[in-house]
Structures are given as C-alpha cells and as structure tokens.
C-alpha cells in the first residue's frame, strides 16, 4: 500500500506545482513582453537505502515559449518593440545585466531611462542611459538610437545621446530569473550589441500567453489532483482492510 500511497502523494504535490505555474502564466496574460513558462512532468526513481523501488512524479519548468506576442500600436514616443529575435538590455536589482522584451520605457526625475519595472536601460557601452533634462522631444530610432531636443532649442537641433543595447543571443542559452528577466545560463556572461536587431517605434509587444490553453491545462491538472487524492483514500481503505484481516487471523 505504501508504494501506491507514495506515488499518489508525490503526484498530487507535483500537480499543485503545475497549477501554480499555469496560474502565473494566466496572471501575466496582459504583461508586456511576457514569455509563458512551459511545464512537464516525468517519473523519477527515489534513491536511498536499498534498491530504488519507489517512483515519484516530478514537475519541471523545462523552458519558456519564445514565440512573439501580439504587437499593439500605442503611438507613444517611449514605447518600442523588438522586431523578430532580439532583446533589450537592462540592469536588474542586483546590478547584473539582464534581458527583456518589455519596451514600455520612461525617464525618471534624475534623467535615467528605465523600463516600466524600474530597471535601468543599458546603452551600447554597457552603461545606464542618461537623458539630459529638460527636453522638449525624444525619439528612438529603429536601430535603438536615442535623440533628444533640448528645451528651448530649434526643431533642427536634435542631438543623439546614446543607443539602446540590443542583443540577439541563442534563446536556448537563456533562463528566466525569479524577477521575470532573462539571463545567460553561463554565470557572468554578457552579450555584445547586435546591429542587426531592429525596433518598431510607438508599439508594445503583448504577452504570448494563450489564456484558453492555460485554463484548459489548469482544469486538467485539477482533475488529476482529485484522482491522486482518491487513490490515497483507496490506499488508506485497503490498508485498513488488511489490518482487519490480520486481527481476525
């Protein structure tokens, strides 16, 4: 009975992990540039003293769906979308270089260019981008070049201040950190700017989460969880019946 109970218990636990993953995807269905997490389960042998005669289920997050989300036109000067493959480069909270597809940018009161999550945007040289305030206008070119018009200057006095660092690593070499940013699997590794990556101005890339698919997966996992609980109850009843037979004997 213990084998059936152990299998059902571990299966139910991993079903809960799977539901958490899909619930997180569903919660980010409207998050700019979000990449859906993938989920899979497989059986694993439990190693310990003696032979590995016990098997348990394990839920994994093998990677993310890197397909592009729907592009939404906003017309805002500081909204950009990476066309095709490629990433915007930011600094995370720990000061490490990271990558994102969220192109909803803003300028803080000190003139630092940030994304909507407050991460500093990096320029080609690897340093945070500073916008000399006050300005009357800002433009971001298709190649990531940032030009500004100082306040009070004539319209033809646009000045280039920096260029967004756009990179194109192999997506298989990236992993998603807990903060939602992507980083190289090789610790400490960074990527050089790629001039071939282009931007679409005045637009944002939406999440690539399929809401219907996520709901279907959650319902399937919930039913599977209920089946595992029923199996645990059956194992308990069989154990009780075995104990009764032993007492009769």
TrEMBL record:
Primary residence: other
Keyword vocabulary terms for this entry: Bacterial flagellum, Cell projection, Cilium, Flagellum
Pfam families reported for this sequence: Flg_bbr_C, LlgE_F_G_D1
Listed GO biological process terms: bacterial-type flagellum-dependent swarming motility
CC per GO annotation: bacterial-type flagellum basal body, rod
Keyword Cytoplasm (UniProt): no
Domain Flagellar hook protein FlgE/F/G-like D1: 82-148
Compartments it resides in: Bacterial flagellum basal body
Keyword Transport: no
Residue ranges constituting the Flagellar basal-body/hook protein C-terminal domain according to the UniProt record: 201-245
Family: Belongs to the flagella basal body rod proteins family.
Assembly and interaction partners: The basal body constitutes a major portion of the flagellar organelle and consists of five rings (E,L,P,S, and M) mounted on a central rod. The rod consists of about 26 subunits of FlgG in the distal portion, and FlgB, FlgC and FlgF are thought to build up the proximal portion of the rod with about 6 subunits each.
Name the record gives this protein: Flagellar basal-body rod protein FlgF
Species of provenance: Photobacterium marinum
């Amino acid at each position: 009975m213990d084998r059936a109970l152990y299998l059902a218990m571990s299966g139910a636990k991993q079903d809960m992990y799977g539901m958490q993953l899909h619930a997180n995807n569903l919660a980010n269905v409207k998050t700019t540039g979000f990449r859906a997490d993938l989920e899979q389960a497989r059986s694993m042998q439990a190693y310990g003293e003696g032979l590995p005669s016990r098997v348990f289920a394990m839920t994994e997050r093998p990677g993310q769906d890197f397909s592009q989300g729907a592009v939404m036109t906003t017309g805002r000067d500081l909204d950009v979308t990476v066309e095709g493959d490629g990433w915007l480069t930011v600094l995370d909270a720990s000061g490490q270089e990271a990558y994102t597809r969220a192109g909803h940018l803003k300028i803080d009161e000190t003139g630092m260019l940030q994304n909507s999550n407050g991460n500093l945007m990096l320029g080609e040289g690897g340093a945070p981008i500073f916008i000399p305030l006050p300005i009357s206008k800002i433009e971001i070119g298709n190649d990531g070049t940032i030009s500004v018009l100082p306040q009070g200057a004539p319209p033809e006095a646009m000045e280039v201040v920096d260029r967004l660092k756009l990179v194109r690593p192999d997506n298989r070499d990236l992993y998603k950190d807990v903060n939602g940013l992507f980083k190289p699997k090789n610790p400490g590794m960074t990527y050089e700017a790629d001039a071939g990556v282009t931007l679409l101005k005045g637009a944002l890339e939406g999440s690539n989460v399929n809401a219907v698919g996520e709901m279907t997966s959650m319902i399937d996992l919930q039913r599977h969880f209920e089946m595992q609980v029923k199996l645990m109850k059956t194992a308990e009843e069989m154990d009780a019946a075995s104990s009764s037979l032993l007492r009769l004997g």
